[in-house]
């Protein structure tokens, strides 16, 4: 195998790493390189990979916790808590089988959002619907000072899906929305500006699919401010459209990146991605969280 190399994919985010076999445990030098690339680009891609769910979980935990290398037992336990999570238009019971997804950060509506997400392309057939990524860190860095000052100490009310969003935003969305299947409507308030727990960078912590409103503002004023923030967050130059192919493994930072997708058709080409995330949220501390072992 050639020497390890990190190749940026887009000015806003993302890097492809070559020369490292991620189907096995990594050595110290490889770990240092992958962690540094992840902290800099928030998204790492490995192509032509063959790996199982525990190895995918190992990489998630390796990148989530900077001072610990997960054991095989820890990786297997994490994978075992989510043994059948798929994003697919063909796998029965899979998540998001059809429709478009607004930009979101998984579980922003919870006190326990995921920190790391990963998808592995098990079976994708062209033309493949891409996944779109946007950098909340870059967006915050590019906000005008006046706009930063307006939101720096603000908080936002976040809901679990577009069915709970202001009608104005949903009606303006172009596409058939994929709707979650929930028998509860959890929500949570987060600061609009957060400090990344690992990198120390400030980031804009609102998103298209989950942020209902800015606290303390009238509904129309709140939506006006949110739209202004979104004009930076989802500006074309801040969005990376990622085109899948079989054997692709992507791991990204759910604090600093949002993801979305255009419409997926049930009758369209196969699009089956294996999903692994970390950490598993403490269900006993938040009973409204779904049971991920059975979620699809």
Mind sketching the topology for me?
Blueprint: E1 5-8, E2 15-18, H1 28-41, E3 43-46, H2 53-64, H3 72-80, E4 86-88, E5 99-104, E6 116-124, E7 131-135, H4 136-142, H5 145-151, E8 155-159, H6 167-172, E9 187-191, E10 193-195, E11 202-204, E12 211-214, H7 219-233, E13 239-242, E14 249-253, E15 257-264, E16 271-278
Look at the helices and sheets and give the structural class: alpha+beta
Rg computed from alpha carbons, rounded to a whole number of angstroms: 19 Å
The shape is globular
What ranges have pLDDT less than 50 throughout 5 or more consecutive residues? 284-296
- What's the overall average pLDDT, rounded? 92
Number of helical regions: 7
Largest sheet: 7 strands, mixed
Q: Which sequence of strands runs across the widest sheet? A: 1-2-3-14-6-16-4
Distance between the termini: 36 Å
Order of helices and strands: EEHEHHEEEEHHEHEEEEHEEEE
């Amino acid at each position: 195998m050639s020497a390890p190399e990190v190749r940026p994919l887009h000015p806003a985010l993302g890097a492809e790493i070559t020369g490292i076999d991620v189907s096995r445990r990594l050595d110290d030098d490889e770990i240092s390189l992958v962690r540094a690339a992840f902290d800099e680009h928030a998204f790492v891609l490995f192509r032509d990979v063959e790996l199982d769910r525990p190895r995918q979980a190992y990489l998630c935990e390796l990148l989530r916790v900077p001072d610990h290398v997960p054991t095989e037992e820890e990786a297997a336990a994490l994978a075992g808590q989510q043994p059948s999570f798929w994003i697919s238009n063909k796998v029965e019971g899979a998540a998001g089988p059809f429709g478009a997804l607004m930009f979101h950060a998984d579980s922003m509506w919870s006190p326990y959002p995921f920190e790391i997400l990963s998808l592995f392309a098990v079976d994708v057939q062209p033309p493949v619907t891409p996944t779109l990524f946007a950098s909340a860190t870059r967006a915050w860095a590019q906000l005008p000072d006046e706009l930063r000052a307006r939101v720096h100490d603000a908080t936002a009310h976040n809901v679990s899906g577009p069915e709970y969003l202001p009608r104005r935003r949903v009606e303006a969305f172009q596409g058939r929305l994929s709707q979650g299947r929930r028998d509860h409507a959890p929500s949570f308030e987060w600061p609009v500006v957060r400090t990344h727990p690992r990198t120390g960078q400030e980031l804009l912590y609102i998103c298209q699919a989950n942020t209902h409103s800015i606290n303390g503002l009238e509904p129309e004023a709140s939506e006006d401010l949110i739209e202004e923030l979104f004009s930076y967050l989802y500006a074309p130059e801040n969005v990376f459209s990622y085109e899948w192919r079989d054997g692709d493994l992507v791991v990204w930072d759910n604090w600093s990146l949002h993801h979305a997708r255009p419409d997926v058709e049930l009758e369209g080409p196969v699009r089956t991605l294996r999903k692994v995330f970390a950490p598993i949220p403490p269900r006993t501390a938040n009973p409204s969280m779904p049971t991920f072992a059975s979620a699809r």
